[in-house]
Design goal:
By secondary structure, the protein is mainly β. Helix content is 3%, strand content 32%.
């Protein structure tokens, strides 16, 4: 199995299935360009001093493309809160997709980046990406018991496209803040 853009040791260390969409919390402060959304009332994750919301495009996503999404975190405390206690690693957040024929687990780097992860009072937007192709593939013909989330690689070991259809987008890796409600996205053929 190969993984695009990963050192071989890391590719073997991180089990990926299907789609990869990830970001790290480090250096992600600031806004994201506007994402056209349907305006539907998407439920938020809430719990204690924080609430969260996943914002994805409402337009269909073309197979093989990458589109912007964002995680909105609202700090209701009225003061900044650090989500990375001293001496710990910053959180790594990933966005995965789950569909009827393909399931995605988010990919995040295993490297530890130390330092504060301060969420100011109010709403902070963290950029995420949706990549509508697999991130793991097999270089040999899959056996009948092979993982369906790791299809044959394309020409030149390129990642194959995810099948068209509806997928549930979900954020993984959150700690100290609630997980936002999943959002449905629709992948269409090229």
């Amino acid at each position: 199995m190969i993984r695009q853009g990963c050192p071989r040791w890391l590719a073997l260390a991180v089990p990926l299935v299907a789609l990869f969409v990830a970001t790290t919390a480090a250096g992600c402060g600031g806004g994201v360009s506007a994402i056209p959304t349907s305006g539907q009332d998407t439920p938020t994750g809430s719990g204690g001093p924080f609430s969260t919301r996943l914002v994805v495009p409402d337009a269909p996503i073309v197979q093989g493309t990458t589109v912007e999404a964002r995680l909105e975190v609202t700090n209701h405390t009225g003061e900044p809160r650090d989500l990375a206690p001293p001496g710990t690693c910053k959180q790594k957040w990933g966005l995965g997709l789950r569909g009827a024929t393909a399931e995605a687990a988010p990919y995040v780097t295993l490297l530890c980046e130390r330092g504060p992860l301060v969420i100011p009072a109010g709403t902070t937007r963290f950029p995420l990406s949706i990549r509508a192709s697999y991130t793991a593939c097999s270089q040999s013909t899959p056996a009948p018991t092979a993982n369906p989330s790791s299809p044959l690689c394309g020409p030149g070991n390129t990642m194959p496209l995810l099948p068209a259809g509806d997928y549930e987008a979900r954020v993984y890796g959150l700690s100290g803040i609630p997980e936002p409600a999943p959002v449905t996205v629709h992948l269409v053929p090229r």
